[in-house]
Amino acid sequence: MSFLPIRALATLLFCILAASETMAEETQLKFYTEEYPPISFSQKGKAAGLGTEVVEEIMNRLGISAPIEVVPWARAYAYATTGPNVGLFVTTRTPEREKLFKWVGPVSATTAHFYTRRGGQRFDNLEQAKQAERILIPREWYLQQMLRGMGFNNINSVPTPADAVRMLVAGRAPLMALDDVTLADTLSAASINANDIETGSTITQAVQYIAFSRDTPDSVAIRWQKTLDDMKVDGSFERIYKKWLPGVALPAAR
Q1: pTM of whole model > 0.70?
Q2: Which residue of 118, 132, 141, 213 is surrounded by the most CB atoms within 10 Å?
Q3: CATH code of 198's domain
Q4: Whole-angstrom Cα distance, residue 252 to residue 237?
Q5: pLDDT of 155-210, one tens digit each?
Q6: In the sheet that 101-117 helps form, which strands lie side by side, from edge to edge?
Q7: How far is CA 162 from the centre of its chain?
Q8: What 8-state DSSP symbol labels residue 181?
Q9: Enclosing domain of residue 97
Q10: Residues 51, 57, 61, 63: what is their CA dihedral angle, to the nearest 10 degrees?
Q11: Both 178 and 219 in a single domain?
Q12: CA-CA distance, 189 to 180, in Å (whole number)?
C-alpha cells in the first residue's frame, strides 16, 4: 500500500480547503436586476436577457448557482449598497459610483439621450433641458445621479423605463432621459409606437458592468472577471451579445 508524501498531502488538503472556501463565498451570492430589456427582464417568472445569460454562464463555469431576482431598480440598488454578497446588473460605471462597488465587465454599453413626444416642445441642449418643467428618469438610475450632479433640479423619478415612456407620451412631462440600446424594447414593453417620440440631444455614453457590493470578498470579483475575460477570448460572450443585440458593437475592453 502506498501513501502520499506529507508535502503532497498537505498540498492536497490546502487545495481542498481553498476550494471549500471559494464555494462558501460563491454560494452566499444573490443577484438583482431590473426590467431593462433586452439586457435584463422577467420572462415566465424568471430572469432573462443578455446580462442574465452572461451571469448564468459565469456561474456555470464556476460550478455554482445563485438566485437572480428582477425587481425595480431603486430596490435592487439599495440591496447592493447596503448588504454583503450582492451582485447588481447591469450597472453603469460612473465616478460617483466607483467606490460603492467592485466591478466586473464590461457587459454592455449605451448612449443616453433626451426624448420628447412627437410634436412636443424641443430641447436642443443640456441648458435648455434644465428649463423643462420636469424630466422623467427611472429612480436611482445613473442618469438621475449624473444630472443632479450637473445642477438639474427638475427630475421626476419613476419606477421603470416603461413608466417613463408612457408618462411622456401621455403628456405628463415634456422630457425623459433614457438609453438608446434598450429603447426599442422599452417602447414595446410599454405598448408605445416609436413614431410617438423624438430623439433629442445626447447626454452621455455609458459602459455597464456587473457590480458587487463592497462587502463581497475581492476574490469573488477577481474570479468573475477572469471568467468573463475567458468568455470574451473563446467567443461565447460575443455569441450571447449578438443574440440579444444584433448589429450593435461589442463594448470596449476595460
Answers
A1: yes
A2: 141
A3: 3.40.190.10
A4: 13
A5: 999 999 999 999 999 999 999 999 999 999 999 999 999 999 999 999 999 999 99
A6: 68-70, 30-33, 86-92, 197-213, 101-117, 175-179, 135-138, 155-158
A7: 16
A8: T
A9: 19-109+208-244
A10: 90
A11: no
A12: 15
Domain membership flag for residue 11: no
Q: Are the C-beta atoms of residues 238 and 47 closer than 8 Å to each other?
A: no
Q: Is 142 exposed, middle or buried (0-12, 13-18, 19+ CB in 10 A)?
A: buried
DSSP 36: B
Q: Is residue 104 domain-resident?
A: yes
Rounded to an integer, what distance in angstroms lies between the CA atom of residue 241 and that of residue 217?
28
> What does DSSP assign to residue 33?
E
Give, for 69, the enclosing helix (H) or strand (E): strand 68-70
The span from the CA of 107 to the CA of 49, in Å, is 12
Same domain for 147 and 182?
Answer: yes
**Same-domain pairing of 154 and 189:** yes
Q: How many CB atoms lie within 10 A of CB 111?
A: 12
Cell of 184: 426599442
| Positive or negative torsion for Cα 107, 108, 112, 117 | negative
Question: How many other β-carbons are positioned within 10 Å of the β-carbon of residue 146?
Answer: 20
220 vs 87: CA distance, rounded Å: 10
CA distance 108 to 61: 20
